[in-house]
Design brief:
Layout: E1 3-5, H1 6-12, H2 18-26, E2 30-32, E3 35-36, E4 43-45, E5 50-52, E6 55-56, E7 64-69, E8 98-99, E9 107-114, H3 117-124, E10 132-139, H4 144-152, E11 155-156, E12 159-160, E13 165-172, E14 177-184, H5 191-198, E15 202-211, E16 214-215, E17 224-226, H6 229-239
Parallel strand pairs: 9-15
Antiparallel strand pairs: 1-4, 2-3, 2-5, 5-6, 7-9, 7-17, 8-9, 10-14, 10-15, 11-12, 13-14, 15-16
Helix pairs in contact: 1-2
């Protein structure tokens, strides 16, 4: 029988995130075959009985969805301020889903929802270089020099961003605004907004239009669709640097 780390089993069962599962283990909330286990990294197999606070867990079927997140929605599984959250759109889905990464409250666009922690980590870690394209409406049309700065990377605090691709889609010289596509593979907090701010432009509207080879074709804001098995496999291959055929 194959064995898996206890925190992964708990997370895959939809009880909690991987990080929260680690806290539950170290604080003594988890039992394996009736015995409290507090050691992280403990491995269990399908024959072991795992319970959290006395309730046995059941393995949850892995699920993957592509979601067109609307503006004015929190990229989280819960919000203590009572605001609308992305999981509100998945109440008919039996699995406990959470977003892969996040989009700001006022940012719309492509977001992947899943209960597969390993898959989420693959897509979120910058070393795997999954490209993300954003379309931004900005005040102050980026100059040629500003575009070059974005392409080479700009300093956000002490950290310099990786190279980006920049394409001016349209401009309105009278209003001094532009529609710009920016493609990056990192995911720092508010990165796109801060990159434009660093070169003198202010983002007034932002949407993520693609992630890897995925896009929002066929969806309108608030809609979602399941990812196909092939799409999930291709994303994993792309993240791991394998050739996609």
């Amino acid at each position: 029988m194959s064995e898996e780390r206890l925190q992964k089993v708990i997370a895959n069962a939809g009880v909690a995130s991987r990080r929260k599962a680690e806290v539950l283990i170290t604080e003594g909330h988890v039992k394996v075959n009736g015995q409290v286990v507090t050691k992280l990294g403990t491995k269990v197999d399908s024959g072991d009985e795992v319970s959290v606070d006395g309730l046995p867990i059941e393995k949850e079927r892995l699920a993957y969805y592509l979601f067109y997140k609307p503006r004015g929605v929190i990229s989280a599984a819960a919000d203590d301020k009572g605001r609308k959250i992305v999981t509100d759109y998945f109440k008919d889905i039996p699995q406990r889903l959470y977003p892969v990464g996040r989009l700001d409250y006022d940012t719309s666009g492509l977001l992947i929802m899943t209960n597969d922690g390993d898959f989420a980590n693959l897509l979120m870690h910058p070393r795997y270089e999954i490209e993300k394209s954003y379309v931004a409406k900005v005040e102050n049309i980026p100059t040629v020099q500003a575009q070059m700065q974005l392409r080479k990377g700009v300093y956000l605090g002490k950290r310099k961003t990786a190279r980006a691709r920049v394409n001016i889609i349209s401009t309105d010289k009278r209003k001094r605004t532009a529609i710009v596509r920016l493609t990056i593979h990192e995911g720092m907090n508010h990165q796109v907004k801060n990159m434009f701010k660093a070169v003198g432009s202010n983002v007034v509207k932002l949407s993520r239009e693609s992630l890897g080879f995925l896009n929002l074709e066929g969806l309108i804001s608030g809609q979602y669709r399941p990812l196909t098995h092939q799409e999930v496999d291709l994303l994993k291959q792309q993240a791991q640097g394998k050739q996609i055929r």
